[in-house]
Amino acid sequence: MSTHALLVDRGNLRRRNRVNRLVEASSTVAALLAVAVLLIVVGSVLSKGIGALSLHFLTTPAGLFGDTSGGISNAIVGTAIIVGIAALIAIPVGLLVAIYTTEFAPQRIAHQVRFVLDLLNGVPTIITGIFVYGLLVEHRHQSGFAGSVALAIVMLPIVARTAQEVLALVPGTLKEAAYALGVARWRTLVRVTVPTAAGGLITGALLAVARVAGETAPLILVCSIFGQGVLTEPSEALASIPVFIFQASESPSPEAHTQAWAAALILIAFVLALNIVARAFYARSRKRMGA
Amino acid sequence: MRLEAGAISSPVLRARRNRIDRIGDPLLRGLSGLAAALAVAVVAGIGYEVVHIAWPAISKFGIGFLTTNDWNPVTERYGAAPFIYGTAVTSAIALLCAAPLSIAISIYLTELAPSRVRRPVATLVDMLAAIPSVILGLWGILVLGPFMHDTIEPALKSALGFLPIFSGDPSAFGYLTAALILTIMATPIITSVTREVFETVPAELKEGAYALGATRWEMVRQVVLPYSRAGIVGATILGLGRAIGEAIAVAQVIGGATGINVSLFHTGSTMAAQIAAQFQGAPGALQKPSLAYLGLILLAFAVVVNVVARLIVQRGTLGDTAVTPTEAEAL
């Protein structure tokens, strides 16, 4: 009974159990640490930002450089416009790319397009900023539209890749049923495939918006020098919440820091809320498709 | 008969429908193909445009740019060495911290956590990736930086001060603070991929190990980790891609010095951070091109890292259970 001998070897077993307990404890501590860091960061933003948050702060444009009596209404409006246009560009294009790879493209080409999207996803956003600078800003001037294009490029692979995953999950039997009834391919897509996948498609779009709402690097390069007051014209440079936080965080004044915390609170609340809503949609759509 | 009558009642309507369908299919195919071509064009355009802007610096400094330890807008002499060093050091430390941490978190989530807390904890770890980098940078400046200066760095100095990397005066900003911020950014990315890979380990193998009398750790070490090795490596390289490309948060906490310093407490800069800090309003005729040259080096690193990571992750996960990194990152 050699296994028996192994199991009654008390000293050895005690050591193995000790090692096991040690690893289990450190794994648990690691998970707690990650959660703790999240809570500490969000808690810092909440506790330091909530004091400066007021109706005045939300409805007044930022003051001149160094003047911290203003608010972030111009940045809120600017972010809404920049991210809105970016979404209008990236969501249809991303969905079309996904439709191409899942419905039309030969397998080899679909694979290559997927690879290109992964490459694009791996391009540092600051490089995207340099690209859009060269494309739209050099020899001209900064603009909200240039910011939108940069953010749309960041969004595109996220929208397209999640849409590909979700469209691939749509049961083939549904599509085949439509084809068997003589329904054209595009009609099947519009009336069967896309509605079935809607939950997951919305998830991808929301996650992409959440991702770029806080994106700062490309905006620093293509949309960071703007005029006073609430501007709404995308052909000129617009203020944005991330750029406001960045510039205020670089300032030495404690008042500017307080403003940065308050703006960060607005941004983080928006981004986390969007993430939670996106997850809800994802869970619902998976249930619907029986995945 | 009933089906046909129900579907399209009149021959006139059916004819119109056929006409629309004749246009509809090629139209959708053409539009979607165009969108895919646009995505490919953007990637090509990024490469072209960065080289184009960098060209004056490329032709002036050549390949020696990579090893020149100088960044002087007055004399217009630029080199990438301090920033390549900064990127390498901060990313390496970040991965040294984030990879073991992520593996431990994944072990907890797949093997230890009670099923009730599993999903919430996994979601919270994922949420860490959703925090905008500019906010993490703000937190780095005002909370983590002072804590590093007052507590962590003095402790490291007194314990390990004989090592040159822990010599010098503690400072709120520098390589080490930046590396910790990058650790926070890379951990959720690595965790989400390793966790998914751990979940693909067949239960039979695990049960086999338990049946042979293995403790949980012995099972993990002898079954889960070997089975997931490729996935872990791929996930870590994906985390590396995130770390080398981060511009804003690093620019906020690394201090912006343009030299090479052995001490991790010292201020420095990385390629991405240097571009973020100086590109806008760079005055010198060669400064913008030199920053774009830095960008080109960074882009080359990022592309290689991402291609390698995805190849490894795809090969490491077997068959149809393959985890797509994008999905894992997004969700």
Helix content of chain A: over 70%
Q: Tell me the CATH superfamily of the largest domain in chain A.
A: MetI-like
Gross morphology of chain B: flat
Classify the helix fraction of chain B into a percent range.
Answer: over 70%
Number of helices of chain B: 12
SSE arrangement of chain A, N to C: HHHHHHHHHHHH
Question: What is the CATH topology of the largest domain in chain B?
Answer: MetI-like fold
Q: Mean pLDDT across all residues of chain B, rounded?
A: 86
Second rung of CATH, namely the architecture of the largest domain in chain A: Orthogonal Bundle
CATH superfamily of the largest domain in chain B: MetI-like
The greatest inter-chain interface is formed by: A-B, 104 and 93 residues
User: Low-confidence parts of chain B, pLDDT < 50 over ≥5 residues?
Assistant: 1-6, 318-331
Quickly name the level 1 CATH class of the largest domain in chain B. Mainly Alpha
CATH architecture of the largest domain in chain B: Orthogonal Bundle
By CATH, the topology of the largest domain in chain A is MetI-like fold
Average pLDDT value of chain A? 87
Number of strands of chain A: 0
Specify the overall morphology of chain A.
globular
User: How much strand content do the residues of chain B show?
Assistant: under 5%
